[in-house]
Design brief:
Elements lengths: L1 H11 L9 H28 L11 H25 L3 H23 L10 H25 L9
Length: 155
């Protein structure tokens, strides 16, 4: 009987996991990257069908997949830092995420008024702007599963 009670004591001393493990986090981030890249491919095809130049570099897979990977990973780092350090991460992210998306659209909007990006036309620029929103949506979906937020604010 004594072995049984010591067994129960040691079992209760094991740490309780509060979130997904590293493999699950990596899996969700990869899933977010893949989903966003597929969405971007569809958006690029639609933009080209709407008249975007085939030579508009941001609509080429090499460009948008690279920037999707960078964006999702940098966003994950930011999400993790906010999740860990903020007293109310949900409230902070509820305004920060849309703000970052809007700021990410500024260079795209500037393409309407300058020629710094060759072959930029309205269909291509609008497609690129929709890509930013699609990546953010896929990334936030992945972050919510990979790095869930506490519902109770910390004091």
């Amino acid at each position: 009987m004594s072995a049984s009670s010591s067994s129960n004591t040691s079992a209760s001393a094991l740490p309780v996991k509060t979130g997904p493990g590293r493999a699950a986090v990596a899996g969700w981030l990869i899933a977010g990257i893949v989903a966003a890249s597929i969405a971007n491919a569809v958006i690029a095809l639609i933009a080209r069908a709407a008249g975007a130049s085939e030579d508009f570099q941001p609509l080429q897979p090499g460009a948008y997949v690279f920037f999707t990977v960078i964006g999702v990973l940098v966003g994950a780092v930011g999400w993790a830092v906010i999740r860990r350090r903020s007293t109310d991460p949900r409230a902070l992210l509820s305004w920060l995420v849309p703000t970052v998306v809007v700021v990410s659209l500024v260079p795209d909007l500037m393409m309407f008024f300058s020629d710094f990006q060759p072959h930029a036309d309205a269909a291509g620029i609008i497609g690129l702007m929709v890509m930013h929103v699609a990546v953010a949506a896929a990334a936030v979906f992945a972050y919510q599963r990979a790095l869930p937020l506490n519902d109770a604010p910390r004091s």
